[in-house]
Design goal:
Blueprint: E1 2-5, H1 8-12, E2 17-20, E3 23-34, E4 37-48, E5 52-56, H2 63-69, E6 80-88, E7 93-94, H3 102-108, E8 109-112, H4 123-133, H5 139-152, H6 156-159, H7 172-184, E9 190-194, H8 202-214, E10 220-224, H9 228-234, E11 237-242, E12 245-251, H10 252-257, H11 262-268
Parallel strand pairs: 5-10, 5-11, 8-9, 9-10
Antiparallel strand pairs: 1-2, 3-4, 3-6, 6-7, 11-12
């Protein structure tokens, strides 16, 4: 069930706030600044629990900026500033609030980047890295979680006999799946994907999309993509962003076939962007 509720800030942006039946996170009146430049304006949306939500829109519209707010990647920029809230459930903690440890946030919210970025370590140590950061030292548990994560990334059968080889020796598609395994190993509640297939060939892209589709019902996924067909294939909810605002957010099938906003329709039909 999806509830579409009126919301003053979202309405000002030309979009109603869509409330999903069960949220894993709620973005509320989020503004984000690089110094004096505002990159996000009054963003509000719900992120459905154990479902895939896609962020679409033209380059420079704020998709990746919003995504990186979820695991505090912007904290590495001393001029970054947040206003508003991103509440993580069930605790209702504001993960961009003062006093919240970004490292703890990143343990709960993993990220897979546009280009594969394996560490200069073995395949095994790439996947085990987050577990060691969590303080896990038991070799049996680490071995079990590494195998589980590699299986979850559909990579185990390809690398199980070469776990001590460098992760950088894998093909591009395998490296991206290794990065997905690294993200899965700490058992995150949310995985962020920032254009995860833009640097991959069609076969590797299909493999990653199949993985994301399999995560429905087990982990919450938020994915940025320029590929509208990809968003339609893998997501249950989609937000269309433009100039730092969420123009429209809703059930994916509805947004692509019957958008409420003209700007959404214009983008989907290729009139701009």
């Amino acid at each position: 069930m999806v509830i579409i509720a009126a919301h003053s800030t979202a309405a000002a942006n030309g979009a109603a706030l869509v409330k999903v039946e069960k949220s894993k996170a709620e973005v509320r009146n989020l503004n984000f600044y690089y110094g004096s430049k505002r990159a996000l304006t009054n963003v509000s949306l719900s992120v459905a629990d154990k479902a895939v939500t896609a962020l679409i829109g033209p380059s420079g519209c704020g998709k990746s900026t919003l995504l990186r707010c979820f695991n505090r990647m912007h904290d590495l920029n001393t001029e970054a500033r947040y206003e508003g809230e991103i509440q993580l459930f069930p605790e209702k903690v504001n993960i961009i609030g003062d006093g919240v440890d970004p490292i703890e946030v990143r343990m709960r919210i993993s990220m897979v980047f546009q280009k594969p970025n394996p560490f200069p370590k073995s395949i095994y140590e790439n996947v085990a890295y987050g577990l060691r950061v969590q303080g896990i030292r038991d070799k049996y548990i680490i071995n079990q979680r590494v195998e589980e994560a590699l299986r979850g990334a559909a990579l185990w059968n390809e690398v199980k006999d070469r776990l001590n080889e460098p992760g950088t020796a894998l093909s591009g598609g395998q490296q991206q799946r290794l990065c997905i395994a690294r993200a899965l190993a700490p058992k995150p509640e949310i995985i962020l994907f920032d254009e995860p297939t833009s640097a991959l060939d069609p076969i590797a892209t299909a493999s990653i999309e199949e993985l994301i589709d399999e995560y429905k019902g087990t982990v919450t996924v938020l994915i940025v993509t320029h590929n509208m067909q990809q968003a339609a294939r893998v997501s249950q909810y989609t937000a269309f962003m433009y100039l730092g605002e969420v123009v429209e957010f809703g059930v994916t099938d509805q947004l692509f076939t019957n958008p409420r906003e003209k700007r959404t329709q214009d983008y989907i039909t290729g009139r701009f962007g």
